Protein backbone atom coordinates (compact mmCIF):
# COMPACT_ATOMS: atom_id res chain seq x y z
CA UNK A 1 0.00 0.00 0.00
CA UNK A 2 1.10 3.54 -0.79
CA UNK A 3 -0.21 6.66 0.94
CA UNK A 4 -0.37 10.07 -0.73
CA UNK A 5 -1.01 13.13 1.40
CA UNK A 6 -1.84 16.41 -0.33
CA UNK A 7 -1.40 19.46 1.90
CA UNK A 8 -2.37 22.83 0.51
CA UNK A 9 -0.19 25.68 1.74
CA UNK A 10 -1.50 27.71 4.66
CA UNK A 11 -3.09 31.15 4.25
CA UNK A 12 -0.71 33.58 2.57
CA UNK A 13 -0.35 37.33 2.62
CA UNK A 14 -0.67 39.58 -0.43
CA UNK A 15 1.99 42.30 0.04
CA UNK A 16 1.75 45.06 -2.56
CA UNK A 17 4.24 44.75 -5.39
CA UNK A 18 5.46 41.29 -4.36
CA UNK A 19 5.71 38.53 -6.93
CA UNK A 20 3.29 35.65 -6.34
CA UNK A 21 6.12 33.14 -5.89
CA UNK A 22 7.55 35.22 -3.02
CA UNK A 23 4.36 35.74 -1.00
CA UNK A 24 4.81 34.80 2.70
CA UNK A 25 2.32 33.24 5.06
CA UNK A 26 -0.25 35.49 6.71
CA UNK A 27 -0.63 35.41 10.51
CA UNK A 28 -3.56 32.94 10.16
CA UNK A 29 -1.34 30.73 8.04
CA UNK A 30 1.41 30.80 10.66
CA UNK A 31 -1.18 29.51 13.14
CA UNK A 32 -2.76 26.87 10.89
CA UNK A 33 0.44 25.22 9.62
CA UNK A 34 1.75 24.11 13.06
CA UNK A 35 -1.77 22.96 13.95
CA UNK A 36 -1.77 20.71 10.89
CA UNK A 37 1.73 19.52 11.75
CA UNK A 38 0.61 18.52 15.24
CA UNK A 39 -2.37 16.73 13.70
CA UNK A 40 -0.14 14.78 11.30
CA UNK A 41 2.29 13.83 14.06
CA UNK A 42 -0.48 12.91 16.50
CA UNK A 43 -2.17 10.70 13.91
CA UNK A 44 1.16 9.06 12.96
CA UNK A 45 0.87 10.45 9.44
CA UNK A 46 4.59 11.01 9.08
CA UNK A 47 5.81 10.98 5.49
CA UNK A 48 8.90 9.23 4.21
CA UNK A 49 9.37 12.18 1.84
CA UNK A 50 7.89 15.66 1.48
CA UNK A 51 7.85 17.20 -1.98
CA UNK A 52 7.35 20.93 -1.58
CA UNK A 53 6.62 23.62 -4.15
CA UNK A 54 9.37 26.23 -4.37
CA UNK A 55 6.95 29.08 -3.55
CA UNK A 56 7.76 30.86 -0.31
CA UNK A 57 4.33 30.17 1.21
CA UNK A 58 4.66 26.41 0.68
CA UNK A 59 8.22 26.39 2.03
CA UNK A 60 7.08 28.26 5.15
CA UNK A 61 4.10 25.92 5.54
CA UNK A 62 6.39 22.88 5.38
CA UNK A 63 8.85 24.35 7.89
CA UNK A 64 6.05 24.89 10.42
CA UNK A 65 4.50 21.46 9.78
CA UNK A 66 7.83 19.62 9.92
CA UNK A 67 8.64 21.10 13.33
CA UNK A 68 5.95 18.82 14.81
CA UNK A 69 7.70 15.61 13.77
CA UNK A 70 10.07 13.85 16.19
CA UNK A 71 12.48 13.01 13.37
CA UNK A 72 13.67 14.92 10.35
CA UNK A 73 11.66 14.08 7.23
CA UNK A 74 13.43 14.04 3.87
CA UNK A 75 12.37 16.98 1.70
CA UNK A 76 12.64 17.75 -1.98
CA UNK A 77 11.84 21.15 -3.44
CA UNK A 78 9.94 20.92 -6.71
CA UNK A 79 9.41 23.86 -9.05
CA UNK A 80 7.08 21.84 -11.27
CA UNK A 81 4.25 21.86 -8.73
CA UNK A 82 4.17 25.64 -8.37
CA UNK A 83 0.95 26.80 -10.09
CA UNK A 84 0.79 23.37 -11.71
CA UNK A 85 -2.12 21.70 -13.38
CA UNK A 86 -3.23 18.28 -12.22
CA UNK A 87 -1.24 16.29 -14.80
CA UNK A 88 2.02 17.98 -13.80
CA UNK A 89 1.48 17.21 -10.11
CA UNK A 90 0.54 13.63 -10.94
CA UNK A 91 3.72 13.25 -13.02
CA UNK A 92 5.82 14.31 -10.02
CA UNK A 93 3.99 11.81 -7.80
CA UNK A 94 4.50 8.99 -10.31
CA UNK A 95 8.26 9.64 -10.39
CA UNK A 96 8.59 8.91 -6.67
CA UNK A 97 10.96 6.08 -5.83
CA UNK A 98 10.02 2.68 -4.37
CA UNK A 99 11.58 3.43 -0.99
CA UNK A 100 8.85 6.01 -0.29
CA UNK A 101 5.65 4.42 1.05
CA UNK A 102 4.09 7.62 2.43
CA UNK A 103 4.46 10.76 0.34
CA UNK A 104 3.44 14.28 1.37
CA UNK A 105 3.13 16.91 -1.34
CA UNK A 106 2.80 20.56 -0.27
CA UNK A 107 1.40 22.78 -2.98
CA UNK A 108 -1.40 24.85 -4.41
CA UNK A 109 -4.93 25.02 -5.71
CA UNK A 110 -6.67 24.53 -8.03
CA UNK A 111 -4.29 21.69 -8.92
CA UNK A 112 -4.57 19.93 -5.55
CA UNK A 113 -8.36 19.97 -5.41
CA UNK A 114 -8.61 18.72 -8.98
CA UNK A 115 -5.99 16.01 -8.41
CA UNK A 116 -7.64 14.72 -5.24
CA UNK A 117 -11.02 14.46 -6.95
CA UNK A 118 -9.46 12.65 -9.92
CA UNK A 119 -7.57 10.15 -7.78
CA UNK A 120 -10.28 9.16 -5.30
CA UNK A 121 -12.40 6.22 -6.39
CA UNK A 122 -13.82 5.26 -3.01
CA UNK A 123 -13.48 5.90 0.71
CA UNK A 124 -15.12 8.17 3.25
CA UNK A 125 -18.06 9.60 1.30
CA UNK A 126 -18.63 12.47 3.75
CA UNK A 127 -14.98 13.48 3.55
CA UNK A 128 -15.15 13.23 -0.24
CA UNK A 129 -18.24 15.45 -0.37
CA UNK A 130 -16.42 18.03 1.76
CA UNK A 131 -13.30 17.80 -0.41
CA UNK A 132 -15.33 18.31 -3.59
CA UNK A 133 -17.01 21.35 -2.11
CA UNK A 134 -13.82 23.17 -1.11
CA UNK A 135 -10.09 22.47 -0.56
CA UNK A 136 -9.18 25.41 1.69
CA UNK A 137 -5.71 26.56 2.60
CA UNK A 138 -3.90 24.22 5.03
CA UNK A 139 -6.34 21.40 4.20
CA UNK A 140 -5.06 17.83 4.03
CA UNK A 141 -6.27 14.95 1.85
CA UNK A 142 -4.98 11.47 2.70
CA UNK A 143 -5.39 8.99 -0.15
CA UNK A 144 -4.37 5.33 0.00
CA UNK A 145 -3.54 3.16 -3.02
CA UNK A 146 -3.45 -0.65 -3.05
CA UNK A 147 -0.38 -0.68 -5.32
CA UNK A 148 3.37 -1.09 -4.91
CA UNK A 149 4.68 1.51 -7.37
CA UNK A 150 3.98 5.21 -7.58
CA UNK A 151 4.14 4.85 -11.36
CA UNK A 152 0.87 2.91 -11.09
CA UNK A 153 -1.14 5.68 -9.39
CA UNK A 154 -4.30 5.87 -11.47
CA UNK A 155 -7.35 8.08 -11.64
CA UNK A 156 -10.06 6.84 -9.28
CA UNK A 157 -7.60 4.24 -7.99
CA UNK A 158 -7.32 5.70 -4.49
CA UNK A 159 -9.30 5.39 -1.30
CA UNK A 160 -9.88 8.64 0.58
CA UNK A 161 -8.85 7.91 4.14
CA UNK A 162 -9.63 11.43 5.38
CA UNK A 163 -9.93 15.08 4.49
CA UNK A 164 -9.04 17.48 7.29
CA UNK A 165 -9.17 21.26 7.49
CA UNK A 166 -7.81 23.46 10.29
CA UNK A 167 -11.35 24.24 11.43
CA UNK A 168 -12.08 20.53 11.97
CA UNK A 169 -9.28 20.30 14.52
CA UNK A 170 -9.82 23.53 16.41
CA UNK A 171 -8.36 26.16 14.11
CA UNK A 172 -9.92 28.72 11.82
CA UNK A 173 -11.06 27.66 8.38
CA UNK A 174 -9.09 29.34 5.69
CA UNK A 175 -10.09 30.20 2.16
Automatic annotation (TrEMBL):
InterPro entries: His_Pase_superF_clade-1 (IPR013078), His_PPase_superfam (IPR029033). CDD domains: HP_PGM_like (cd07067). Keywords: Hydrolase. The keyword Hydrolase applies. GO terms for molecular function: hydrolase activity. Its EC number is 3.1.3.-. The keyword Iron-sulfur does not apply. This is Phosphohistidine phosphatase.
Amino acid sequence: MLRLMLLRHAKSAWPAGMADHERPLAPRGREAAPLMGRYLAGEHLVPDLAIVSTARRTQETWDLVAAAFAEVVAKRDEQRIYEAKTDAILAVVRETGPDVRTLLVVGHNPGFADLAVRLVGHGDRYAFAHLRQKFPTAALAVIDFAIDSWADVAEQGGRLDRFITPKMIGGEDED
